[in-house]
Every structure is written in structure tokens, then in C-alpha cells.
Request: fold
Amino acid sequence: MELKNTAVLVTGGASGLGEATAVHLAAQGAKVAVLDIQDDKAAAVAQRIGGIALHCDVTDPTSAETAIAQAREAHGVARILVNCAGGAVGKRVVGKNGPMALEDFTKVINLNLFGSFNMTRLAAAEMIAADPLGEERGLILFTTSVAAYEGQIGQASYSAAKGALASLTIQLAREFSQFGVRVMAIAPGIFLTPLLYTAPPEVQESLASSIPFPQRLGKPEEFADLVGHIATNPYLNGEVIRLDGAVRLAPR
Reply:
């Protein structure tokens, strides 16, 4: 798919991997809608790249529908959805104070899994109804994680959510294949996102030392580069690509 003048939705686009993706795709000529609940940060990103910023809580059906409709009015039907909104809080299933509160589990599942699915069902419906662009109609991209495969202690909710997205990738690719809509996922390793920016240098160095090569934290721009390649390579479909420097997470 050509990126120039193509309408794109990036959730979680105000920071981290989402911000880098929005910047990269806009530089390739895409019309980018930055979707986030961090309104000021989203507006700053959108102004910098010549896109639009839209308030969007991916877990809320009405908020998601409104944001997609606003993006469509400004840019036309989105042909690419990049799901970057997500997050986690580490907590053991059974800790010193007893079992994890069920709400703590469901919050993470709701944001990472239900939020991505909510955006996907709405964006895919519009892609499927649109005219094809060459041999395809659109692309859905999930951000999963290496935690989907090597979940560490305290990552039950996050691993479950990201593992579900990894499983959904081939299923949805098959379901949407008749319409020419591709579904892909990227499983990042340890990336220098806003959370790690605040970590002490010794923590960052310790994490980097566990990565075989290159022995450093991943750069958000490298994630964005891969998103751009996936978008322009129509034979990539139904696959989860690990982007991790060959790291395999230890139990803790």
C-alpha cells in the first residue's frame, strides 16, 4: 500500500512507539490521526507532523466511534490502523497480601486487548466497505510484546493480553482475507519508551546487557520503520514479527 495521502489511525500516538509511528508515517506522506487520551501531548505531535489530534479512549465504544468518524471527516476512510495504546502494572497473582484483585487483572486486559479489538472492529468495518486500493483495502496492526511468549513473574495480565493479540493476528488475517484487509503484529522487546526514560541509568544498562545484539534498548524509530515496511509490503499478512535483538526474557 502506498503511504502518500493514505489515511492512518495511530492509537496511543501521543508518546512512545505510537508517537514515533505517527512521525514516521507522516514523513512518508500519510494523513495521520493521532488518537490518545493525553490531549495536549497528542495535539503537540499532530501539530509537528501536520496531522490531527483526536481524543480517544480505546476502551470506550462511543469514544472510539466518535474519533474514527472525526478522522474520516478530515482525512477519508482510514486504510491503516496501528494499535499502540496499552500499558501494564506488574503484580503477582498471589502476593504477600493474598490473591490479586480481579479488577487489577481486568483493567490491563481491557486496555491492551479489548481496546485494540474495539478499534479493530470499527476500523475494519470501514475498510471492508471501501473501494480497494490496488489489491488490498487496508491494514490492521497490533502491538503485542515478547511478554506474550516469555511472560515474567508479575506479568500475568499483560502476558495474557499480549498473547491474545498474537493469537488474534492469524485468525483475523484469515477472516478479513476475502476483503483484502491484512492483519499483522509486532512484538517489541525492551524499548526506550517514556517509562524507561525515567529509569536510572544503571537500570537501563542492566536491561540492555540482557540483549544479545545490538546490546542496547530498542529505539521507537526502529519500531516505526518496521510499521512502515509492513504497510508497503502487501505479502506480509497474518504474522507476528519479534523486534527484540534476539532477547528472551528471564523469569524475573
Q: What stands out?
A: The chain has a mean pLDDT of 95. The beta strands are 7-11, 31-36, 52-55, 80-83, 94-95, 98-99, 138-143, 181-188, 240-243.
